[in-house]
Amino acid sequence: MSISDVRKPNKKNMISGINSTWEVVVGIEVHAQIKSQSKLFSESSTSFGAHPNNNVSLIDSAMPGMLPVLNKECVCQAIRTGLALKAQINLKSFFERKHYFYPDLPQGYQISQFRKPIIGEGKILISIGQDKKGEFEDIEIGIERLHLEQDAGKSIHDKHPSMSLIDLNRSGIGLMEIVSKPDIRSSQEAKAYLSKLRSILRYIETCDGNMEKGSMRADINISVRRPGQPFGTRCEIKNVNSIRFVGQAIDYEARRQIEILEQGKQIHQETRSFNAEEGKTHSLRSKEEAHDYRYFPDPDLPPLQFNQSFVDQLAKTLPELPDDRRNRLIYDMDLSPYNASVLIAEKTIVDYFESVAKGRNSKMTANWIINDLLGALNKRGLSIEESPISTNQLGMILDMIQDGTISGKIAKKLFEIIWNEGGNPLVIVEQRGMKQVIDSQTIEKTVSQIIEENPDKAMQAKKQQKLVGWFIGQVMKRTNGQAHPEIVNALIKEKLQINT
Predict the structure, then answer these.
(1) Are residues 330 and 374 in the same domain?
(2) pLDDT tens-place string over residues 161-203
(3) 121 inside domain
(4) Structural domains counted in the chain
(5) How far apart, in Å, are the Cα atoms of 399 and each of 52, 85, 303, 359, 408?
């Protein structure tokens, strides 16, 4: 298989060495556990967290005479993923046996797809930025293939002093291996690619994308070269389970390879691991090639075939995808590209946004969700599903800002109260006397008092109008933030005889 080089060198991605600059070339293989009730070739449950070896059938444990039966739902999920990746759907594909020995692989081989996978070439569009001008760079990353295969079991090495234990609950769970082309040129692009892929999988609900639980794992192929030269020898970093760690692994491995090459030595193709505590990669073994796995067609499984009408029916089940939703937020709801990108990153977040924004100011809604709600959630390590503030409660807060019942400052206090105590925002504002003061006579008395108490600053403000802000702050402080800011501003300028 020939590998095309479609990216032109970009100065911002170059890495400085001792004698020259270098370019890192990255391709990523993602193993995504298919979201289904049962495994790829058996009826065993795929539930996470079950007691060890509880979700294991005779097929999963490779008992003699057991024959695999393909799970139709896993096939459908793979096709839906292929459609979302704008990829070629192969109406005929084959299953093959990939031979290698590992203690948690009972069969001694893995049922996979090699020569003819279910999904062919596709693409993902990632956005890098913002730059100093507030603009994003859109980059297309090619997808080489997506194929179906079984997951292996899990070896546990820390439960017994002299033996390793095997848990086969994961053995046989359906995986989609999604292989990118070597189109990635930086750790930043790699993280953006994985984030976008995970977002797509979650939108279409074919994988939950939970890297911490192992339902999405990344193998990173990394090489370096001088700009314009052919691809270098690559090393593969196995089973990285965090997008942040992927970035760290690429940065370290690129530097390691550059150092070796600048010493006049060669890179040896090998498989390595990433130690997150050290921030370093370590050699595991020499890298296997396809012939090492002795692929041959699985005699127990016929070719996988379906027609175009089957694909067309699955296409109708796809939701609005992240790129389409982002464009709608920008062009139909007048959001900035940045705000739209933040909101569409997770389907649950943009669903929350659209629920609150219905019939309200979309820009104000986006700002409150991104700056206040997501900020509070991130600070406490919570997801949007765990938010103490419902869409209805946040909507009420925004409505009261819009109709002048409360000011933005009061709204911040109300947000904290709802976050910590819950309750109806309308009732809380009424009971706690948090309404904004809009009576000009009441505000005028406070303005006059503060001007009388600060004659020197009043004289200065007539010459330096920026001091008006100081007077506004004093009024807001004395009224506990309840005075209407526009009325306060107008009254101060009137009293100080400042022309606007």
Answers:
(1) yes
(2) 999 999 999 999 999 999 999 999 999 999 999 999 999 999 9
(3) yes
(4) 3
(5) 51, 39, 59, 10, 11
